Amino acid sequence: MSSVAVVTGAAGDIGRAIALRLADSHDVVVLVDIDVVAAEKAARDLGPAERFVALGCDVTSEAELAALATRIAGFGLVHTLVNNAGAARAVSLHDTDGDIWRKDNALNLEAPFLCFRAFSEALKQSQGSVINISSVNGMAVFGHPAYSAAKAGLIHLTKLIAVEYGKFGIRANAVAPGTVRTQAWEVRAAANPEVFEEAKRWYALRRIATAEDIANAVFFLSGDQAAAITGVCLPVDCGLTAGQAELARTFSQSEHY
Ligand SMILES: NC(=O)c1ccc[n+]([C@@H]2O[C@H](COP(=O)([O-])OP(=O)(O)OC[C@H]3O[C@@H](n4cnc5c(N)ncnc54)[C@H](O)[C@@H]3O)[C@@H](O)[C@H]2O)c1
């Protein structure tokens, strides 16, 4: 039976890069997105129709997810689920109202839970793995509170799956990207064309990650090389969460930082 990888939010830049990378280890990659036209274009751009399949689905809808799982079963057995769909609505707690809080949590935390439920039986059969795309925002405060709280919850959901479903051979891991230049940044980049240059000084490597950097980490975690790794959150953040050189310079009064 064909091995299938499912990537949600795959019309976006990170999702598309993950879909391309997972085609190295899966027979079929399903690009799931609420924007089916964009997902279809992404699938066409990536390769042949028998290897890259686009399906429309709002991952916050349990009914749509149930229909999605039934359709995907027709392509083969799901070995890898990547919960990548995500977005943030408000930058500060001051700007966050109840509706924004609920919507950000629905997309960034509840949807990965519902997706996992929709594919858990298939993953038991394949002894497959789930990779949840969290964020450095789930590890420390960098703005976007409702989104960040949901991404922190997603790291915990990853551990919950790892611990309870490990007995079925299912692994669950999270990837926490730092800044990646994608369409999600368009508004901020338009407001300040220097936003990425300004951000780089906070990163140990003095650069931001690419979508391919994230895809490589997902590929590793989904494969046999990571067979003993479950319940972890792997930052792919060019050292952002390791520490701040500028602060270390102030604290230590050493020019070596
Ligand atoms: N870009 C960054 O700097 C960055 C940093 C850390 C984490 N992330 C995370 O990486 C993931 C991908 O981010 P990106 O920058 O590629 O975003 P993006 O906006 O480029 O892509 C997100 C995709 O998700 C889809 N989507 C939104 N709501 C959906 C829904 N209800 N159902 C199905 N699909 C839906 C969108 O249509 C879009 O194609 C997200 O989870 C994001 O939080 C991104």
Write the layout of secondary structure elements.
Elements: E1 3-8, H1 13-22, E2 28-33, H2 36-46, E3 52-56, H3 62-73, E4 77-83, H4 98-126, E5 129-133, H5 145-165, E6 171-177, H6 186-191, H7 195-200, H8 211-222, E7 233-236, H9 245-252
Parallel strand pairs: 1-2, 1-4, 2-3, 4-5, 5-6, 6-7
Nicotinamide-adenine-dinucleotide binds next to helix 1.
Explain this structure.
The protein is of the alpha/beta class and 257 residues long. The protein has a single domain, classed as NAD(P)-binding Rossmann-like Domain (Rossmann fold). It has helices at 13-22, 36-46, 62-73, 98-126, 145-165, 186-191, 195-200, 211-222, 245-252, and strands at 3-8, 28-33, 52-56, 77-83, 129-133, 171-177, 233-236. It has a seven-stranded parallel sheet with strand order 3-2-1-4-5-6-7, with helices on both faces. Strand 2, helix 2 (36-46) and strand 3 form a beta-alpha-beta unit. The model has no long low-confidence stretch (mean pLDDT 98). Nicotinamide-adenine-dinucleotide binds at residues 8-9, 11-15, 33-35, 38, 57-60, 84-87, 107, 133, 135, 177, 179-180, 182-184.
Features of the shown structure:
257 residues; Rossmann fold; 7-stranded parallel β-sheet
The total domain count is: 1
**Spatial order of the strands forming the largest sheet:** 3-2-1-4-5-6-7
Bound molecules: nicotinamide-adenine-dinucleotide
**Based on DSSP secondary structure assignment, what is the total number of beta strands?**
7
